[in-house]
Structure prediction request, 147 residues.
Amino acid sequence: MIQDLIGARVVCWFVDDCQGINELIASSKHLKIEGKIEDYILHPKASGYRGVHMLAKVGYDCVQKQGGAVVISSEEMICEIQIRTKLQDAWGDVTHEFHYKAQCAGVENRVDERILAEISTRLAKEDESLLALRDAYQRLADEKGVA
Prediction:
């Protein structure tokens, strides 16, 4: 059953930023998390999909005409929020074309699924490499006194 009418995707440079964004969203006064947060970064799907998914109620102003007057009332709607890295997002784009659309057409290929999962594992290692690179640059900047 579809619950969300709108969606949002937050794409981060670094995998640890995904958790930081997750915490910011959870602490927001404008978003109310509904149900369980699905963390596919910590627990990837069998296909190799990685990302954080959540449903949140988002407040908005509803403008309606009642009688001869315009009335603004506060309303809420459900929004699916996805958080992932640039590499995870690129993998998601590829799998949407080659995996998801094929499944929707009734085509299942276990070899392709295995290859996609292997690619996901390699990209997860590259996400770790990007963290190491960022941390190395940060140490150099700290040593030089660069902000």
In short: Residues 138 and 146 are 9 Å apart (CA to CA). The helical segments are 15-26, 86-104, 110-144.
